[in-house]
Amino acid sequence: MASEDVKTSGSAVSTIVNLAEEAKLAREGVTAQSYAFSICKSLFAGGVAGAVSRTAVAPLERLKILLQVQNPHNIKYNGTMQGLKYIWRTEGFRGMFKGNGTNCARIVPNSAIKFFSYEHASKRILHLYQQQTGNEDAELTPLLRLGAGAFAGIMGMSATYPMDMVRGRLTVQTEKSPYRYRGIFHALSTVLREEGPRALYKGWVPSVIGVIPYAGLNFGVYESLKAWLIKTKPYGLVNDDCELSVPTKLACGAAAGTVGQTVAYPLDVIRRRMQMLGWNNAASVVTGDGRSKVQLEYTGMIDVFRKTVRHEGFGALYKGLIPNSVKVVPSIAIAFVTYETLKDIMGVEIKISD
């Protein structure tokens, strides 16, 4: 009888343990699925934010690149309005958005990876910082936010760099170019066949150097401004729930974009010029008579910097800065606000300010 009781008791305990294990596994499964779904929603929000922000300023993006690689001996336009009117007059509405399809194909994964990388890098850095200081309530400093943003920028840029290189060439070519790429995949295959795989990463080094202050300052300034506003609550810009209004977030994004692009812009010019190397039909190498060519010869990033300054002056490193400034102010602002708004709508738990 006692033996039966022991067996019954043992069976009951075993059943309880099994049920507990099954419940635990079920909870873990739900948690894993929920976390994976949250990641997907985060990536989706970042991708949509990038596409919306870049499409909104596509004409200015194209004008910036054309100004960066414009032949100094055959200047067709100098200012933003003059350049936009020239593109409209010579190529029409479609010319204003030339290369935007490639740009969106690049910026969607770039933006998704960048925002996602920043979220997780900032959380990891914050955890290490709290352990180091022994203060569980410690918050990220502006410098740490800049570091997380730089890491995110490098990850996003490196993953999509070949698309950026192709976008530059598609954007620069015109109706009068002797040779035209028919699209993204045609451009990729042509560059691979004629110039080799390394050509897809021309200008990668200055891009990495440039993305560190650019992305770092974008995220660092934006997050630091938001944190400061929430903490100080000046001029009634923060509501009772410590939430910033959309116009205030747009202003923070505009300030972040302006600071970041001004610091990193010369490296963007160098990168773009290096991407044009090896392409004899780039619009920038056609001289005034429309027939002869001036072959640009650079041996590397330093050589591009030296020859650009020597032949065109230091100001050439900021060619296209004005249209880029006009572009960056709304672009970065729209990207940040779109990203955070979409995540609020979809109910994603992970927030870049957490």
UniProtKB/TrEMBL annotation:
GO terms for biological process: transmembrane transport. It comes from the Eukaryota. It is a multi-pass membrane protein. It holds the Pfam family Mito_carr. Solcar repeats lie at residues 37-124, 140-228, 244-345. Transmembrane segments: none annotated. GO terms for cellular component: mitochondrial inner membrane. Keywords: Membrane, Mitochondrion, Mitochondrion inner membrane, Repeat, Transmembrane, Transmembrane helix, Transport. It is found in: Mitochondrion inner membrane. Belongs to the mitochondrial carrier (TC 2.A.29) family. PANTHER family: SOLUTE CARRIER FAMILY 25. This is Mitochondrial carrier protein. It comes from Carpinus fangiana. The lineage of its organism: Eukaryota, Viridiplantae, Streptophyta, Embryophyta, Tracheophyta.
